[in-house]
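To: structure desk
From: M.T.
Subject: fold request, one chain
Message: Could you run this one when you get a chance? Sequence is below, nothing fancy, just the single chain.
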Amino acid sequence: MVSESELALYAGSFMVLAGVAGAAIGPSRSDPVVKALNLDLASTGICLIFLAFNHMLALLTYIAVGAFATPILMRAILRVEAGERE
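Reply: Done. Structure tokens follow.
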């Protein structure tokens, strides 16, 4: 039987691999919004990996990633919208 911490570790590892592969070689990788979403998937996977080891470390990582990823994602969306208008 798989414990909850092992399940979080396996799910996080899969999310990291899928997010990095999607950002590097996936479809629409030139689109900054899709690339940012793929990297956000990878960062959430890292948070799950940390959750398997320590809850406080996972919480701090989630807060830090959210604080840094949100402005980057918004900037990418605004650039794509500005490019479509021209």
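Reply (cont.): Residues 4-85 form one domain. Let me know if you need anything else for the meeting.
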